[in-house]
Amino acid sequence: MSPRHNRARGGANPDPQGEQGDRYGGSQRSETWQGEEWYVRHVAGASAPGKRYRCPGCDQEIPGGAPHVVAWPEYGGVDDRRHWHKACWNAKDRRTSRVQRSRNAPKY
């Protein structure tokens, strides 16, 4: 009797990010904001990397492993991605554009 093979043999390797590119366990969609197309990806907390991010909506820190939203313009690159709290992304139209930051806070 030959050994059992559970792996698929031959052919192309499947896409490790899935069909929609949900690398961190979230779903991706497109939204229009301020007359521009934005890609929005929901990141699940359990699959979020351990990095900390600063939300541009409230200027507060998003701790590592917390569920959040990643948004970037349609024609933007990797440097244009921003990590938002889900509530801040949903309230982005109701917020003012002048967020007061301390002297040493990042500009993004």
TrEMBL record:
Residues 1-36 are annotated as: Disordered. This is ATP/GTP-binding protein. It comes from Streptomyces showdoensis.
